[in-house]
Specification:
heterodimer, A: mainly alpha, Non-ribosomal Peptide Synthetase Peptidyl Carrier Protein, Chain A, 4 helices, globular, B: alpha/beta, Aspartate Aminotransferase, domain 1, 7-stranded mixed β-sheet, 15 helices
Chain lengths: 79, 413
């Protein structure tokens, strides 16, 4: 799966969690820009894990601060 | 002095204050206390009269937030054992368990645990926190996977972090979410599933039988923290796993002396044939001083008495049912639909009213725990009640009356 397709699928998943309708780019940060708290992070990560049938451990999550990094991580985990 | 001055002049950047990360919390506390409410996190008990009554601010106060489930803290046999050990062995061991810190009493309390749980091995730590920290971090290391409930206790999370394993949480008590994560773990990786019998914030129990069956299907080892169930859940007080008939499938039970046992300390019991090696490789066990002789003596005596605690267990369950129903009928929102343990969590609308309610109860002469985020699930503010087997039926009725009056004063019901 290429990066563009992965990004499109993640963009669809992020929508219900993007309460303020922030315009999401690769530089959008989950905590600072989207204001995700720990519960939102858990639900959002679970949605991505289920969509792509992968595990994103908390150790990996700690390295992911923005949307672009998340897409890159998912691309890596699915290839 | 001149040295210090010249160093200051040599500075390359302005001084950084490592405490600035706490500013938000400091501000939140300042705001809360500026309303005039008593600080819920600095209560002093001037005297403790019994397992259920203490003097706070000069007032006799019913204790309903101590985890002293079986009321063993003033048991005459327990006290006598502690005094005898002070006389015979002194006030402390001043040493690690693996060096000069293992006395006869430490061996005796480990034997009491083996007998209580009917298991082969028991290892005693200086606190319950260290038991989780030590066991989890030592058995699950780099490359292994820990699958755990998102509402796990801080000591479990810290153990995960310290061991450097891949940490994979799942939604609270969600069997399907747990299974999905186990299924996705790469073949060949070591797997540890960490669960709790009773979750202490809401007082709800885990569906251990189903969860452990799933964990075993995927070849995972299972650790269950039974801190809040020891002594009164299960036919022999061994906890939720015993109650649900799946204790034989639990690889490691973690527990504490600081709740039903009535002193301080933590432990792990296990039937793993290689378990004893943990005494040499588990750093939170090795690099700390062992429990004082009086503590292990009181713990051993208390554990052996808990083996015959059927009548107390029955009374504690009765207390839990009566309080749950009483608070519900009074109009409070509770953490569980039915009483599942000796913890009953009363859900507050927000921190401000939670703190006001906590203070109103204290003025009534009742102590409960105020629990707030981030310790609580779903950012809830809770007044957490933990019942004791020696709360009398009259005290429980008194407690319901106090809650009702305070709830009306604060405007929650």
């Amino acid at each position: 799966m290429d990066r563009e397709e992965t990004s499109a699928r993640i963009a669809a998943l992020i929508e219900p969690f993007n309460k303020k309708g922030v315009a999401v780019t690769d530089a959008t940060r989950f905590t600072d820009d989207l204001e995700f708290d720990s519960l939102t992070v858990m639900d959002f990560v679970a949605a991505i894990e289920d969509e792509f049938d992968i595990i994103i451990s908390m150790n990996q999550q700690a390295e992911i601060e923005n949307y672009g990094q998340l897409v890159d991580a998912v691309v890596k985990l699915t290839n | 002095m001149t040295d210090m001055l010249s160093h200051a002049e040599d500075r390359l950047s302005p001084p950084s204050d490592l405490f600035s990360k706490f500013d938000a919390l400091i501000e939140m506390r300042r705001e809360l206390l500026s309303t005039g409410v008593t600080d819920p996190f600095s209560l002093v008990m001037e005297r403790v009269l019994s397992p259920t009554v203490a003097l706070c601010n000069g007032r006799e106060t019913i204790l309903l937030g101590t985890y002293n489930y079986m009321g063993m803290t003033f048991d005459p046999d327990v006290i006598a054992a502690g005094k005898q050990a002070l006389d015979d062995f002194g006030s402390g061991t001043t040493g690690s368990r693996v060096l000069n810190g293992t006395y006869a009493g430490h061996r005796a309390v480990e034997q009491a645990l083996c007998d209580f749980y009917d298991m082969d091995h028991a290892m005693v730590f200086s606190t319950g926190y260290q038991a989780n920290l030590g066991i989890i971090s030592t058995i699950a290391g780099k490359g292994d996977y820990i699958v755990l409930d998102i509402d796990s206790h801080a000591s479990i999370w810290d153990g995960c972090k310290m061991g450097d394993a891949e940490v994979v949480p799942f939604k609270h008590n969600d069997i399907e979410a747990m299974e999905k994560r186990l299924r996705r773990i790469p073949a060949g990786a070591g797997k540890l599933v960490v669960l709790e019998g009773v979750y202490s914030m809401l007082g709800d129990i885990a569906p251990l039988k189903e969860m452990i069956a799933v964990a075993k299907k995927y070849g995972a080892m299972v650790l269950v923290d039974e801190a809040h169930s020891m002594g009164f859940i299960g036919p022999n007080g061994r906890g939720v796993a015993e109650d649900q008939g799946c204790l034989d499938d639990v690889d490691f039970v973690i527990g504490t002396f600081s709740k039903s046992v009535g002193t301080v300390g933590g432990f792990c019991v296990s039937n793993h044939p290689k378990f004893e090696i943990m005494r040499l490789v588990c750093r939170p066990y090795v690099f700390t001083a062992s429990l004082p002789p009086s503590v292990v003596a009181t713990a051993a005596t208390s554990i052996r008495k808990l083996m015959h605690g059927e009548a107390k267990r029955a009374h504690l369950w009765e207390n839990s049912r009566v309080l749950h129903k009483g608070l519900r009928d009074a109009g409070f929102q509770l953490g569980t639909e039915t009483p599942q343990s000796a913890i009953i969590a009363v859900i507050m609308p927000d921190l401000e009213r939670g703190a006001a309610m906590w203070e109103a109860l204290l003025h009534e002469g009742l102590y409960v725990n105020l629990a707030r985020p981030p310790a609580t699930p779903a950012n809830m503010t809770l007044l957490r009640c933990s019942l004791c087997a020696v709360h009398s039926a009259a005290q429980v009725q008194q407690i319901i009356g106090m809650f009702t009056r305070a709830g009306k004063t604060v405007g929650i019901i």
